[in-house]
């Protein structure tokens, strides 16, 4: 079983090779370590390997880790579904939120972002596969949502995020990521971010323009899917 340092090195090598194979600069693809259900000690190990950006899905778990790791300079990303009653804590404790799919949530984040902090970096989650069980706005609703969110103060709309339906078919993987890239291009806004790709499909995502790949299993191993505090 690989250690975290070995796993970080392997994932970085995959990112570099995928970027080079696509004619992209590897520096344009950033690694977001998905650390949900992982102990703070695992994040500390990854930090020692140079990892600085961590993505969390469960608010209460994330806040506990932030308190425990307060001696480290980490950048915290929220990547899970958002409930209205959680927006204040998100606005106060995170640098990025990748999973906004409703105007109401964006408005609350804007209103609740503390003045002492820089604008909150935001991605809009799009349901590119049309799965009923998946969060994300419908592609047909994206332009109106993006236009409204881009006007809100205290936020910086950076781009789009998606979690396509899982598949082992590289062509199908690329097609889903290409849809997200095309949606970003059609918006005509000054966006620089595509948050897409996970452990099993990061190569396809990078080929289609991913700027953040969200990697958990390939870094930390299989997760304990018990019920963490939310």
UniProtKB/TrEMBL annotation:
The cofactors required by this protein are: pyridoxal 5'-phosphate
> Per UniProt, which keywords does this protein have?
Pyridoxal phosphate
Alanine racemase N-terminal domain: from which residue to which, for each copy?
9-223
Q: Name one GO molecular function term.
A: pyridoxal phosphate binding
Q: Name one Pfam family in it.
A: Ala_racemase_N
Gene3D superfamilies assigned to the protein according to its UniProt record, in alphabetical order: Alanine racemase
InterPro entries of this UniProt entry? Answer: Ala_racemase_N (IPR001608), PLP-binding_barrel (IPR029066), PyrdxlP_homeostasis (IPR011078)
List every position bearing N6-(pyridoxal phosphate)lysine.
Answer: 36
Q: Does the keyword Coiled coil apply?
A: no
The family this protein is said to belong to: Belongs to the pyridoxal phosphate-binding protein YggS/PROSC family.
Q: What does this protein do?
A: Pyridoxal 5'-phosphate (PLP)-binding protein, which is involved in PLP homeostasis.
Q: What is this protein called?
A: Pyridoxal phosphate homeostasis protein
Native source organism of the sequence:
Azotobacter beijerinckii
């Amino acid at each position: 079983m690989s250690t975290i340092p070995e796993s970080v090195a392997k994932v970085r090598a995959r990112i570099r090779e995928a970027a080079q194979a696509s004619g992209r600069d590897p520096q344009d693809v950033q690694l977001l370590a998905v650390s949900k259900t992982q102990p703070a000690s695992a994040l500390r190990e990854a930090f020692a390997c140079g990892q600085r950006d961590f993505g969390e899905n469960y608010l209460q778990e994330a806040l506990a880790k932030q308190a425990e790791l307060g001696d480290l300079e980490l950048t915290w990303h929220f990547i899970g579904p958002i409930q209205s009653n959680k927006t204040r804590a998100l606005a106060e404790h995170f640098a990025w939120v990748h999973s906004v799919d409703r105007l109401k949530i964006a408005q609350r984040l804007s209103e609740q972002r503390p003045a002492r902090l820089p604008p909150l970096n935001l991605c809009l989650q799009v349901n590119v596969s049309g799965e009923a069980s998946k969060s994300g706005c419908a592609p047909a609703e994206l332009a109106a949502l993006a236009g409204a969110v881009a006007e809100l103060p205290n936020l910086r709309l950076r781009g789009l995020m998606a979690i396509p339906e899982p598949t082992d078919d590289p062509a199908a993987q690329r097609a889903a990521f290409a849809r997200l890239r095309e949606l970003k291009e059609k918006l005509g806004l000054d966006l620089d971010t595509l948050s897409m790709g996970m452990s099993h499909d990061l190569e396809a995502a990078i080929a289609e323009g991913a700027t953040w790949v969200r990697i958990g299993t390939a870094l930390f191993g299989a997760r304990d899917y018990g019920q963490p505090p939310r």
